[in-house]
């Protein structure tokens, strides 16, 4: 069997949530074209409400698309829904623990749901891979939050899918556990699993993913290798609190200056081209007295907006 070039392919994908009595119609995906290369760790990055979960839910069969085509591992979700679903494991955002089961039972039940024959189940192997071997027969309610997360990854893998999707895997998870989860994801990827993860943390996508797609308001605004994307996003901001309030942002060409509601002056620059000192010199040269200052990473929302509008980033 020849393997598909792309683990997931979406073309012209549209999702419209119909209006209700209290909410207007919502176009959550506005014609998304996306290809997830086989073997990659692919990040779907975007602010809340961008459409990430909607995309994942369409893949997992939980939400019906309005228009467009999607194939998973070369299997069209309309024409071969069962085969498509067999190719994907989804780790949901919420921890849904079956408190009355042990991890071993929980995996067995899940394997049963997927029709995996007993002889082909890899329960012990999965438990060991997720560091849960010594908890195999404990009640799930006795597991720590981190162990429950790992059990969810194991559950998503019971039918040995070539594609694993993690929806916001580290939302509300502490730093230690985040690193552990990243390590598991990398391990699975080394074993040949294509991984898709959604996140609204650039840092997470940067640490794990080789390819990143940025979605904003239902549209893909960038999709490229992490290295290329970071090069484009490479900018920082100096935030200056002026001694006396400014009526308007000064012209700091070649830097971009904006005033915040609280009177702070935000100056963005590309670290590749200039340093903080040069920015401050420009601020002083414009006659601004500096009371306080700090540097900030760019606001992702700003980045999305400038990617969407096609403006060049920063200076
Ligand atoms: P993300 O996962 O990126 O935060 P979502 O896919 O959850 O984004 O949401 C995209 C948009 O669709 C949001 O505006 C959200 O309010 C809306 N939406 C999501 N689910 C539903 C639903 N079941 N019914 C109506 N609107 C929804």
Bound compounds: adenosine-5'-diphosphate
Regarding CATH, which class of the largest domain?
A: Alpha Beta
Q: State the strand order across the main sheet.
A: 6-7-8-3-9-10
Assign a percent range to the helix content: 25-40%
Assign the CATH topology of the largest domain: Rossmann fold
Biggest sheet features:
6 strands, mixed
Distance between the termini: 49 Å
Q: How many strand segments?
A: 14
**CATH-level-2 architecture of the largest domain:** 3-Layer(aba) Sandwich
The gyration radius over C-alpha positions equals 23 Å
Task: Characterize the overall form.
Answer: elongated
Could you state the CATH homologous superfamily of the largest domain?
P-loop containing nucleotide triphosphate hydrolases
Number of helices: 10
Mean pLDDT: 89
Number of domains: 2
Strand-residue proportion: 25-35%
Low-confidence stretches: 311-315
The sequence of SSEs as H and E is EEEHEEHEHHHEHEHEEHEEEHEH
Q: Structural class, from helix and strand content? A: alpha/beta
Summarize the structure.
The chain has about 325 residues and is of the alpha/beta class. It has 2 domains: about 5-230, Rossmann fold (3-Layer(aba) Sandwich), CATH 3.40.50; about 235-295, Alpha-Beta Plaits.
Descriptive overview:
With 315 residues, the protein is of the alpha/beta class. It has 2 domains: 6-230, Rossmann fold; 236-297, Alpha-Beta Plaits. It has helices at residues 52-60, 81-86, 103-113, 123-129, 145-156, 175-190, 202-208, 226-233, 276-285, 300-309; strands spanning 6-17, 26-37, 41-45, 67-72, 75-76, 88-91, 163-167, 194-199, 211-216, 219-225, 236-242, 256-259, 265-269, 290-296. The longest helix has 16 residues, at 175-190. The model is unreliable at 311-315 (pLDDT under 50). The structure holds adenosine-5'-diphosphate (ADP). Adenosine-5'-diphosphate binds at residues 17, 26, 28, 46, 48-54.
């Amino acid at each position: 069997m020849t393997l598909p070039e792309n683990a997931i392919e979406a073309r012209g994908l549209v999702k419209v949530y119909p209006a209700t009595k209290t909410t207007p119609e919502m176009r959550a995906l506005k014609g998304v074209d996306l290809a997830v290369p086989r073997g990659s760790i692919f990040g779907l990055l975007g602010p809340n409400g961008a459409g990430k979960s909607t995309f994942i839910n369409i893949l997992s069969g939980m939400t019906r698309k309005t228009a467009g085509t999607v194939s998973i591992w070369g299997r069209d979700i309309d024409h071969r829904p069962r085969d498509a679903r067999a190719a994907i494991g989804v780790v949901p955002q919420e921890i849904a623990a079956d408190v009355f089961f042990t991890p071993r039972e929980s995996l067995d039940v899940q394997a049963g749901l997927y029709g995996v024959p007993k002889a082909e189940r890899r329960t012990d192997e999965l438990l060991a891979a997720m560091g849960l071997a010594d908890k195999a027969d404990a009640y799930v309610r006795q597991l720590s939050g981190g162990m429950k997360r790992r059990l969810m990854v194991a559950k998503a893998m019971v039918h040995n899918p070539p594609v694993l999707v993690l929806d916001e895997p580290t939302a509300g998870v502490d730093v230690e556990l985040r690193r552990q989860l990243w390590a598991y994801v990398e391990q699975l990827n080394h074993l040949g699993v294509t991984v898709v993860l959604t996140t609204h943390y650039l840092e997470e996508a940067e640490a794990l993913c080789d390819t990143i797609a940025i979605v904003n308001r239902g549209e893909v605004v960038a999709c490229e290798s992490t290295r290329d994307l970071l090069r484009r996003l490479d900018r920082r901001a100096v935030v200056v609190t002026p001694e006396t309030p400014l009526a308007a942002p000064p012209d700091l060409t070649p830097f971009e200056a904006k005033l915040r509601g609280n009177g702070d002056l935000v100056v963005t620059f590309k670290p590749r081209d200039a340093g903080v000192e040069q920015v401050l010199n420009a601020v002083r040269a414009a006659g601004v007295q500096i009371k306080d200052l700090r540097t900030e990473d760019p606001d992702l929302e700003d980045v999305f907006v400038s990617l969407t509008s096609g403006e060049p980033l920063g200076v």
